[in-house]
Amino acid sequence: MGIKELKEKYGVRGSVGAVNAAIRAEIPGGANVLDALTALHPALRRSSGRTRRDLEATFERLQSARAAMVDDVATRYGFKSRTQEEGDAKNANPVESGA
C-alpha cells in the first residue's frame, strides 16, 4: 500500500493530511502530538525572549516526535518519508552519488 491507498483509506486529498489522519488513527498518542503542535504554533508566533526559547524547544521535540510517527506510517504503508529519503542520501556510496 502506498500514499495513494492511504489517501483513499482516510478520504483525504493531500499526502500530509493522509499521513496525519493515519497518525491520529493508528499511533498511540499521535493525536495528542498533532493537537499540541497545532495549539503551540500560534503561541510560539506571539512569544519572545525566554518564553519563546522554551516554546521553540518544546515545538522542536514535538516535531521530532511527529517525524518519527511519519516514518512509522511510511514504513507501514510502503512509501518513503522525507527523513527516510534524507537518510538514504546521507548513507549513499560517495562514488554512486557523484561525490
What does this structure look like?
There is one protein chain. The chain is an all-alpha fold. The protein has one domain (3-77). The protein contains 5 helices and no strands. Helix 2 (15-26) packs across helix 3, helix 2 (15-26) packs across helix 4 (49-77) and helix 3 packs antiparallel against helix 4 (49-77). The longest helix has 29 residues, at 49-77. It is globular and about 45 Å long. The model has no long low-confidence stretch (mean pLDDT 88).
Please specify the SSE layout and strand pairing.
Blueprint: H1 3-10, H2 15-26, H3 30-46, H4 49-77, H5 82-90
Helix pairs in contact: 1-2, 2-3, 2-4, 3-4
- Biggest pleated-sheet summary: none
Q: Order of helices and strands, N to C?
A: HHHHH
What is the radius of gyration computed over CA atoms, rounded to a whole number of angstroms? 16 Å
Structural class of the secondary elements?
mainly alpha
Instruction: Provide the domain count.
Output: 1
Mean pLDDT: 88
Helical content (DSSP H or I, runs of 4+): over 70%
Distance between the termini: 34 Å
Overall, the morphology is globular
Poorly predicted spans: none
Helix segment count?
A: 5
Strand content: under 5%
- By DSSP, the count of extended strands is 0
